[in-house]
Amino acid sequence: MDEGAWATAHLxxxxxxxxxxxxxxxxxxxxxGRHTFRARATDGTDATQVGEQRGPxxxxxxxxxxxxxxx
Length: 71
Fold this sequence. Notes:
- By secondary structure, the chain is an all-beta fold.
- The chain has one domain (about 1-70).
- About 0% of the residues lie in helices and about 25% in strands.
- The strands form two sheets. It has a two-stranded antiparallel sheet with strand order 1-2.
């Protein structure tokens, strides 16, 4: 949240395989105002997604998913 430290999300279902996405939830203590939310993936070996932004050509997009919104 807002460029702060990473927090642990809770998985909502067990993993079906090492190669599948899984739904997750993070219980954020809501605060009024404009906020930036970031998410990063972790794979089955505990390697985390890199933050560097790069478009899809030629080797696939990389970077964190980011969303800014007012609460």
